[in-house]
Amino acid sequence: MNLSITENEVSERELLFPNLEKIFCDINIHEYQNVMQKAQESVIAFLEENIQPFSGVSPKELKNQFEDINFNDDPKSYDEVFEEVRTLYTQHAVAFHHPKYIAHLNCPVVIPAVAAEMLISSINSSLDTWDQSAGGTLMERKLIEWTCSEVGYGKNSDGIFTSGGSQSNLMGMLLARDHYAAKHFSHPVRKNGLPENARHFRIFVSEMSHFSIQKSASILGLGEQSIVKVKTDRSFRMNVVLLEDAIKKEIESGNIPIAVVATAGTTDFGTIDPLTAIAAMAKKYQMWLHVDAAYGCGLLLTDKYRHLINGIEDADSVTVDYHKSFFQPVSSSGFLVRDKNYFSLITHYADYLNPKDHDEDQIPNQVNKSIQTTRRFDALKLWFTLRIIGKKGLGNYIERIINTAHQTAVVLENDPYFELLNRSDISALVFRYSADPFKTFDLNRINTFIKSRLYKQGSALVAGTKVNGQFYLKFTILNPLTTMEDIRTILNTIKQYGHEYTEVN
After folding, report:
1. Are residues 178 and 305 in the same domain?
2. How much is the pLDDT for 21?
3. What confidence score (pLDDT) does residue 502 get?
4. Contact 274, 217 (CB under 8 A)
5. What is d(CA 180, CA 178) in angstroms, rounded to the nearest whole number?
6. CA–CA separation, 380 vs 139, rounded Å?
7. Does residue 185 share a domain with residue 303?
8. Could you tell me if 178 and 269 lie in one domain?
9. Which residues, given as ranges, of the chain have pLDDT below 50?
10. Range of the domain at 419
11. What is the pLDDT of residues 369-405, one digit of tens each?
12. 219 and 301 part of one domain
């Protein structure tokens, strides 16, 4: 049976629906092709024209160009809008793909995932229910099954794609709270709200953990008071002895330990908490264990460094962030649980969307496991990537950036003008320019000046952070194209700006 649309039918529909040439549909295929060509040319221009990570434009300079923008004006042509967007956005966009961008946890993206983005945006499936996504649901489930297996989970595990690590961490804390209340107090939080003793709930985290854990506690009604920060050791990993001391202290104070969060790849230092020891502590005190592996999940891809996250399989829940360590475009993240039954704590049924009888008919509705309803088919990007590049290919990228970070650490340690604060398990290095030791300079001011100069100049971008009140520079190496020549060029520029500051001051 031929279901294709004839040219005559297209012409008839054009007559029936005039002035709708911008709608994505079969009668506007030619317009779609022409516009996609213009979009592709715009992206190519971005790659060719942005020869350094950033233009150096200031917020004030760029804001002035927005003064005359009025969305009530007459519509513009595609060419006019592409040019406008070039002026306001693409020529100033930070180029994460550039080898001298080593600032934040932003990876370059792989071409297969970019190709998938076009399908995702155009077809526009919604992954909340089967009747809106069909095969997309099964593809997402297959990728979650694969990721769970790589973590070391059994067949009873499950998960869901999320918007990012913060949402995944929120889900981890949500399930930790509700599971503890149900198991220990027979209190269904979903139905009855927080139990009276919820004000005594305590969640233990490393002092180097991601801020989203505190934010999650606030959103969940537990307040930031529920977060107990545990000191780290000299390598900036959670000190397990101090963790147990903190747990005992809270119990003695009448509080209730419900969860511990271990970090597999801290934002600042790229260090991994002792997962196996923390898992044992969580089991001893009957606490939920969540592992935030938003950064460290890339280690799942490599046989050489996979052992660094041994113990992750003992977690009740895990955050993975494909758009940090799997070279995926934003957004592409995941939340995994060791036992799929945990998701029943957050499952809601709506007759118009995911009625209860769908479960009986084995209709797979992903909304049953998500705090989002409408969700993009972000899993397709990872599907394209793994099928075209493969786990081993991605693993080679991860090994390359880790090796570059190790070599960079050696260079920093052997240069008298730098102080290296840590050796990273992955690829984040915290250090600072150190002036002439025989002269007194404020190193905070010098390094703040250096970071500011780099940003304004734009030829290389690095991050900054504070440790014990002192300002440091930070490299986050996530680009396999970054070479040691790039690193040395950046370090020489840092020294140049440091020398300039000391000479003037």
Report:
1. yes
2. 83
3. 86
4. no
5. 5
6. 7
7. yes
8. yes
9. 1-3
10. 391-504
11. 999 999 999 999 999 999 999 999 999 999 999 999 9
12. yes
Total domains, the chain:
2
Q: Which two tokens stand for residue 290?
A: 């969540």
- Tell me 236's DSSP state: S
The residue among 320, 344, 379 that closes a domain is 320
SS3 262: strand
Separation of alpha carbons 407 and 403, rounded Å = 6
Residue 197 sits in the same domain as residue 280: yes
* Residue 290 parent element (H or E): strand 288-293
Q: What is the pLDDT of residue 67?
A: 92
Asked if residue 297 and residue 179 are part of one domain, the reply reads yes
pLDDT at 1: 41
Residue that has been written with the tokens 């595609």 in this structure:
78
Residue 441 lies in a domain: yes
The CATH number that applies at residue 251 is: 3.40.640.10
3-state secondary structure of 99: coil
Strand locations in 15-171, DSSP E? 101-102, 158-162
The predicted-structure confidence for 252-305, as pLDDT tens digits, reads as follows 999 999 999 999 999 999 999 999 999 999 999 999 999 999 999 999 999 999
Q: Per the confidence metrics, is the pTM higher than 0.90?
A: yes
Residue 62, H or E segment: helix 59-64
**Alpha-carbon distance 203 to 205, whole Å?**
7
Burial (Cβ within 10 Å: 0-12, 13-18, ≥19) of residue 504: exposed
Helix runs in 106-255, H state only: 111-123, 130-133, 135-151, 165-185, 189-192, 212-219, 240-252
Q: What is the pLDDT of residues 414-434, one digit of tens each?
A: 999 999 999 999 999 999 999
Backbone angles phi and psi of 104, in degrees to 5: -100, -175
Task: Walk across the sheet containing 428-433 and list its strands.
Answer: 101-102, 461-467, 470-476, 428-433, 418-420
